[in-house]
Amino acid sequence: MKILMMLLTSFVVYAQEPAQPLKPIDVEDAAVENEVYNKTETPAEPPVETAKPVESKPAVPSAPDVKDTNEEVTFEPQHTPNSYASRFSILADIAPLSMWVPYKLGLTLGWQFQEDWAVEASYLQGKIDLDNTGVEGVGDAKEDRIDVVIRKYFCGSFSVFGGYSYQSVNAEASDQVRTDNPGLPFYDTTIKTHGVIAGIGNRWMWGSGFTLGVDWISAIIPLSNKVDNDFRDLIPSDYTDAQDRKDIIDAMDKIEKTPRLTLLHLKLGWTF
Fold first, then answer.
1. Where are the alpha helices (DSSP H) in the chain?
2. What's the CATH number where 176 sits?
3. Which of 84, 197, 198, 232 is most buried per CB count within 10 Å?
4. Is residue 213 in some structural domain?
5. What is the tens place of the pLDDT at every residue in 42-89?
6. 106 with 143: CB under 8 angstroms?
7. Mean pLDDT in each 10-residue stretch from start to end of the chain (272 residues)?
8. What does DSSP assign to residue 49?
9. Total-model pTM
10. Which domain holds residue 242?
């Protein structure tokens, strides 16, 4: 009971004491306290910069290789015609030194069917007027020639060739002979020869397809001959003296049997 009375008495005394006014806050003191607090505070770690994502750009497709149409054309020959397999060629022929008619022109068609092999067919023709050459009894001589050969290339442009050859040499009597001997049976005589041909040459091709060839030398070996209007056995004994008659017969024999040479046979054209 005494304890309870003491508690009540102390409560009443405390309640009667005047309230202490709140002390105003000094702004400057607060700023100083905050500054001290900030200095003593553990410094914050600098922020870590995160890597920015790289913007991916769509891949640009590379332009296809386009051949420059303005590329400079070189004129150096490709010395390897055998590097082109299964190609065709068309060539003009010029044979200034050939037997029997010395100057012939013609055309060659070729097909390269394997890397080093080609087959060719040629036609040549030549004609010469012998009225003023001192050859008696012959006015004009005309020759037609057909060659079909296989060509084998070695070391690039060099080649050897061989095959079949046909020649037809026609000789017509001069106007003087016709006038002086109206009854002679040999105004027009043709010698047809079948034989084999062989030779060597070179051929070059440029990038454009232009082709140049030279058959340095070739020879035709006669195998058989046929003479239309063979006058050797029909020459009258009174046509001329015995020596002239013999010369005519010997000339015909040589034409039939002698190998026919051709030198510097040029070929130029295109391969495609």
1. 2-16, 27-40, 175-180, 242-257
2. 2.40.160.20
3. 197
4. yes
5. 555 555 555 555 555 555 555 555 555 555 544 455 545 555 556 899
6. no
7. 60 53 53 53 54 55 54 50 72 93 94 92 90 60 94 92 94 68 66 94 93 96 83 59 65 80 96 91
8. P
9. 0.62
10. 81-271
Tokens of residue 117, six digits: 């092999």
Separation of alpha carbons 89 and 118, rounded Å: 10
Given a contact cutoff of 8 angstroms between Cβ atoms, the answer to whether 270 and 211 are in contact is yes
Q: Which residues pair with 194 in a beta bridge?
A: 166, 224
Q: What is the pLDDT of residue 69?
A: 52
Asked, for residue 25, whether it belongs to a domain, the answer is: no
First-to-last alpha carbon distance for the chain, in angstroms, is 139
Q: What is the number of residues in the chain?
A: 272
Tokens of 116: 């080093």
pLDDT tens figures, 111-126: 999 889 999 999 999 9
SS3 content of the chain, % helix, strand, coil (to 5): 20, 40, 40
